[in-house]
Amino acid sequence: MTSSDSAAPGALSGPAAPSHQPEVLDAPSADPLSSSAQPRDAMLPEHNPESAAADRHHPKGALPALTLAALGVVYGDIGTSPLYTIRQAFRPEGGLSPHDPAAILGVLSLIFWALLLTVTLKYVVLILRADNRGEGGVLALARLASGALSAKAVRQRAVILVVSIIGLTLFFGDGLITPAISVLSAVEGLQAYEPGLESFVVPIAVVILTLVYLIQARGAGRVGRLFGPIMCVWFAVLACLGVWHIAHNPSVLLALNPWYGIVLIDQLGWTTFIALGAIVLAITGGEALYADMGHFGRKPIRIAWLGVVLPALVLNYFGQGALLMREPAALDHLFFEQMPGWALIPMIGLATAAAIIASQAMISGVFSLTQQAIQLGLLPRMIIRHTSETEIGQVYVPRMNWIMMTGVIALVIGFGSSTDIAAAYGIAVTGAMSIDAVLAAIVAVRIWKWNKWLAIATFAGLGLIDVAFFAANCLKIPEGGWFPVVVALGAWFVISTWRRGRAVLYEKLHGSAMPVDLFLSTMREAPLRVAGTAVFMTGDISTVPLALLHNLKHNKVLHERVVLLQVLTVDVPRVSEASRVDVRRLGKGFHSVVLRYGFMEQPDVPGALARCRVHGLPYDEMQTSFFLGRESLVPAVRSTLGRVRQALFIFLSTTALASKIFFRIPPNRAVELGGQVEV
């Protein structure tokens, strides 16, 4: 046993506190990803769709500012797709010729209708409605869908859990590819100006990406205010270039007719999938606008898309098509060939700035989903910094920032060109989009009260487009599509190991624990009671914490007031203060306290305990000691985790953020008690 009043790192970090980790969709079980896991519905507040906060009431003048910031943070990714999409569609292996006007019209038609159906209808109109108290992203959507099911739908909840984790891992893979391809595509414009500059492209891209990740600590809102005006100029230039070239060849507008896309698919046959693998590049970033909803709200994101982004993108794509019809030889640097020679250098600079901004949408989305994953117990605790005093969803996760930076730079150096990276792009995006469609269909039936067949028809139709895009991108696995798959599998392995390890450790610590009622009834000889309050954090308030037994065994005293404290993360982003605290008197000076937090909130244990005064439990921080279990994990000779998972779980646990920091417990009021546990 060890006892310490210091802020020693690792106190109740991962190994010591699977029980203190926020709850996930199910209670810990031998296999937390199986259908045998039981939901804790009794612990969750009732979902009320009318309380959704996505259309939050912004202060006067805030809506224009948030709309501008959304342009800079949310739409950078999809806004830079014109740099490479049409060029990739006409790669030789796709069977399309830039000399064929019908092929050009077909590609433009497919791009236009993909933007209209997948991004506008599916995400902006429909899925943005599926907010979980103002938060978006695959995890918030999964919690919404899970919460809408009946208490007996255990298997369905388990399926939703697995699907949501797959979506999360795919999003992480997408978060690495987007910054790499966006910045490389822009910097490659130097080759259009001077082919001899090719050797400088990768080093310049690496420097730019390094700077992008270094400024993340300033927060999404500040970055958005900086980037928003630049993206306004970018989209204005896209629209103007498009109008200019369309005016020289108005016949390109025929591509608004979906018939041209249908004819192209009919002519290409199975090789259509190769073309679709490039066309999907036009909608990458659509999934990020939903993940970023918690940063800016639904209304600013919709206004920015319908009023600025969509019109500018359509005009520029059609302008590129008009230019290609006149000059097929312009394909190699099609985007930069749109402007006159005198504007090339300024445009390369603007495109590079826009590409830098494109990285922000995915980075912000990764931070948001990482916070949700930590609160839901899918990932170990990490430092989370809230970067805005007014917008709750704006966070910065340092560890994920540096992991992403390392991965993106390795990707740029390893692939070396945007054309090669494009082969890796699309699988993660389309996979995540398909999962969003499935979860949104459940929400439509259970929460929006749609007719079941209407919901199936709507989201099956939209999902079919995603599946077609996904199948098309599977053809690119040998060329580079393996990369996001490897990233997703690696993330899945980490998440599943963490959850399974927590379940094993939970059973070790609580499987044979003494019930509190039995402990109180057998406490015949009252031990020496000392003044003050002792708070014992536990994952199960019905059993006696090991730290309490250690303290009683070695120090032979109990405090005047003993609080058994459990922290739960429930099924909503934020919990109202009225539902935050639940206090029960157990007798003999013992109290049980349950604190509830939403999966977008950062727990503050001392702050919550101060609110217990109204429940008859006095709290004075200077008279309170927090007893934290600090078990050191050692590998068992025989472990159900297996050797690889065992080593990984121990590593994740030892590197997790200390509980006293995560729960904001004052270091000078913490006492650590524990020992070794084999896993």
Termini, distance in Å? Answer: 18 Å
Structural class: alpha/beta
**Radius of gyration from the alpha-carbon trace, in angstroms:** 27 Å
SS elements, strand count: 10
Biggest sheet details: 6 strands, mixed
Oligomeric composition of the shown chains: single chain
Tally of alpha and pi helices = 25
Q: Which spans of ≥5 residues are poorly predicted at pLDDT below 50?
A: 1-54
Outline of this structure?
The protein is built from 25 helices and ten strands.
Characterize the structure shown:
The protein has two domains: 14-37 and 509-678, no CATH class; 53-204 and 217-359 and 419-475. The protein has helices spanning 62-73, 76-79, 85-89, 101-126, 138-147, 154-187, 189-193, 201-214, 220-248, 258-268, 272-279, 286-291, 293-296, 298-326, 344-375, 398-415, 418-422, 427-446, 452-474, 477-510, 516-521, 546-555, 605-610, 643-655, 659-662; strands spanning 385-386, 395-396, 528-537, 557-569, 581-587, 590-597, 624-629, 632-634, 670-673, 676-678. The chain has 679 residues and is of the alpha/beta class. Helix 1 (62-73) crosses helix 14 (298-326) and helix 6 crosses helix 8 (201-214). The chain is elongated and about 95 Å long. 54% of the residues lie in helices and 9% in strands. Strand 5 (581-587) and strand 6 (590-597) form a beta hairpin. It has a six-stranded mixed sheet with strand order 5-6-4-3-7-9. Strands 1-2 form a two-stranded antiparallel ribbon.
